[in-house]
Amino acid sequence: MTAVRPLPQWLTVSTGRAPAVIEGRACRTRAAFFEEAARVLRFPSYFGHNWDAFADSLGDVTRAGKLTLVVEHAEDLLRAEPPEHFAALLGILAEATRTGLTVTLYTSADHEAPLRRRAAEAVS
Questions:
Q1: Is residue 106 part of a domain?
Q2: Which of 18, 37, 47, 90 has the fewest other C-beta atoms within 10 Å?
Q3: For residue range 56-102, what is the model confidence (pLDDT) as tens digits?
């Protein structure tokens, strides 16, 4: 049997779950967000497309194992909705961190400060 050569430091092999990536530009409305989240997170076909159903389905996913959720172009996430919907989403995500969820909102440098303000207002 041949000894396995070590990998270079920059290369990782994992048997864990790959990050789930949601495209914020595709999620400006609640309806679009629920569609994208259901697709990316592989929610069951009976997913109810509302905040309670999202919380329940996300809980099922995180109880099955740790999950990293990445939102690209997060500055557009739920942008066409009243602020309370962004707050509802962040509240649900915060609760899911207790069962293994990590979340990263990605944005460009010119959108970082407004996104940070919007997120801070939503969680306060």
A1: yes
A2: 18
A3: 999 999 988 889 999 999 999 999 999 999 999 999 999 999 999 99
